[in-house]
Design a protein that fits this description.
Elements lengths: L21 H4 L4 H7 L1 E3 L11 E5 L5 H11 L3 E5 L2 H11 L11 E4 L13 H14 L4 E6 L4 E7 L2 E5 L8 H11 L11 E11 L2 E14 L2 E10 L14 H11 L4 E6 L6 H12 L6 E5 L10 E4 L6 H8 L6 E4 L5 H12 L3 E6 L6 H8 L4 H7 E13 L4 E4 L3 H10 L5 E4 L10 E12 L2 H8 L4 H10 L5 H10 L5 H7 L2 H5 L4
Parallel strand pairs: 2-3, 4-8, 11-15, 11-16, 12-13, 12-14, 14-15
Antiparallel strand pairs: 1-2, 5-6, 5-10, 6-7, 8-9, 9-10, 16-19, 17-18
Helix pairs in contact: 5-6, 9-10, 10-12, 12-14
Length: 512
């Protein structure tokens, strides 16, 4: 039936107004239909010359229309359908066709400037934005809907930066639908949060590498927000020696991960690089002679020859940890110890001849002790099984391309006065390399709490954290403040970064 004879409301047609014919739908490849969210409608006469009706999310995507016309060798009549109906039509058209459901994978390229072409398809807008995010080494992409507009921000070196894009309130629905398709989410669900994963390859300098995006969709009063965590396959290859450890902490931590049994915990807030540190630690011990099992939520990076498991509805961290003990492992990595059950299994594994690595949320390294006690761990078991706890943060590095000396402010003057020690300070004045921020890249600051016999006795005696911390500090443990201070002295970072990332009580510790 001619399009002009059909009723529609505000440009939308109903799928029931069209015939869904399998042979006609299959004129466009299944993967092409899913990637671009288009479908051929009605019965198409292969020998005819009349235009072909094609269902689309956005009937104004001129480039996509031209591409479809080139494939079909016929003019097309774009028909605006919602995402649910397009998916339904594709499923009907390919219901009896054997499809190899390989994961849809984006092909991304470095993007130096984003296009504002109004005819750009939703697929190309997303490809450009994600390609730009990787080019700028962003760790996250935030797409947020407000009453009158849509904001896109990239988290670069731990800080969110507003990015000007062609996404706006009139095309955001298509963008979100496209993201849902790529991550195999329910495109008709707009009232509940959804999580998925998008797979991509990024080609630069004639080399391609896999990059995944962990997608979170959250509904709101003005539309759905999306946050994509960028999981770059380059990052896990970073060795311990490249993370920013001091020589002392590096040597101690390397010795810990080569221990045959016991528990090693890496602590800190989300986004502080705990997973990267754990992967780097596994890199120190990975070999054909060692069996390593990990349970993660999600698996952020695939490590060759390491047996990685994903938490799911049927098995949680504790379920996997218990099952691991029957798999004859040498090393176990538990992505997050968040409850008493997981903590108990992990500690028992560490006590029975396994090296167990994991993460925990605490403010400092010694806080691991009280946190595990809160989770119901017996102090005697803890004192016997804990090898060490590494607390860390990520601070931005002063851009070396625009680095200049700066004057002391009131905060630095106070610290220098208390410590009776002063030196030159540096900051970045802003250049093209650092996008006028004065910072370029990040480095870790660390605090390593090592359990020894005296400390174990204090833990067994249920000594409070502050007593344990006083003792290990007197024994020479460097705090995160100490580590950051040495990096500030070397001109690597700034006091502003120290204040932004390190808890106040740790900063205040040497000043009392």
């Amino acid at each position: 039936m001619p399009i002009d004879d059909l009723e529609n409301t505000e440009g939308f047609y109903e799928l029931s107004q069209f015939t869904i014919d399998e042979k006609s739908v299959q004129l466009l490849d299944y993967k092409f239909c899913m990637q671009n969210f288009v479908v051929v409608l009605d019965i198409v006469d292969p020998s005819g010359q009349e235009s072909i009706s094609v269902g689309m999310l956005d009937t104004e995507e001129i480039q996509l229309i031209g591409e479809i016309e080139k494939i079909l060798q016929r003019p097309i009549q774009p028909v605006r359908l919602n995402g649910y109906e397009i998916k339904k039509a594709i499923d009907i058209g390919y219901a009896h066709y054997e499809i190899h459901h390989e994961k849809l994978k984006l092909s991304l390229l470095p993007i130096q400037e984003l296009s504002f072409d109004p005819d750009l398809s939703a697929a190309q807008r997303i490809n450009d934005i994600l390609g730009r995010a990787i080019t700028l080494k962003a760790s996250d992409v935030h797409i947020e809907c407000f009453e009158g507009d849509v904001d896109v921000r990239f988290r670069i070196d731990g800080i969110l930066h507003q990015i000007n894009t062609s996404i706006h309130k009139d095309n955001i629905a298509n963008i979100i639908s496209r993201l849902k398709i790529l991550s195999d989410l329910d495109i008709s669900e707009r009232r509940a949060a959804q999580d998925g994963r998008i797979y991509a390859t990024f080609e630069a300098n004639k080399e391609a590498r896999p990059i995944d995006f962990r997608l979170s969709i959250l509904p709101g009063p003005f539309g759905e927000d999306a946050v994509l965590r960028v999981l770059d396959s380059e990052k896990p290859s970073i060795g311990l020696e490249n993370l920013g450890f001091s020589e002392q902490i590096l040597g101690q931590f390397q010795a810990m991960v080569k221990n045959p049994e016991g528990m090693i915990l890496v602590t800190g807030p989300s986004g502080c690089g705990k997973t990267t540190t754990l992967y780097a630690g596994l890199g120190e011990v990975k070999s054909e002679q060692v069996k390593i099992l990990t349970v993660e939520d999600p698996i952020e990076y695939v490590i060759p020859k390491v047996n990685q498991k994903q938490v799911g509805a049927r098995m949680n961290f504790a379920d996997y940890a218990r099952a691991f003990l029957r798999q004859d492992p040498d090393i176990m990595l538990i992505g997050e110890i968040r409850d008493d059950e997981t903590a108990g299994v992990a500690l028992r594994a560490a006590q029975t001849g396994h090296l167990v690595l994991g993460t925990l949320h605490t403010n400092d390294s010694v806080g691991t002790v009280s946190r595990l006690k809160v989770l119901g761990i017996n102090p005697a078991l803890l004192s016997d099984s804990l090898l060490c706890s590494l607390s860390q943060r990520l601070v931005r590095k002063v851009c070396q391309y625009c680095k200049v000396e700066e004057k002391q402010d009131s905060f630095s003057k106070e610290i220098f006065k208390c410590l009776k020690h002063s030196f030159s300070l540096f900051h970045g004045q802003g250049c093209e390399k650092c996008r006028r921020t004065g910072y370029y890249g990040r480095i870790g600051i660390f605090e390593l709490f090592v359990n020894n016999q005296e400390v174990a006795d204090m833990i067994s005696a249920d000594a409070p954290d502050y007593k344990i911390r006083q003792f290990v500090r007197q024994q020479g443990m460097s705090s995160m403040f100490d580590d950051a201070f040495s990096k500030i002295k070397a001109g690597i970072t700034t006091f502003d970064e120290l204040r932004r990332t390190v808890p106040y009580q740790i900063i205040n510790e040497p000043l009392i």
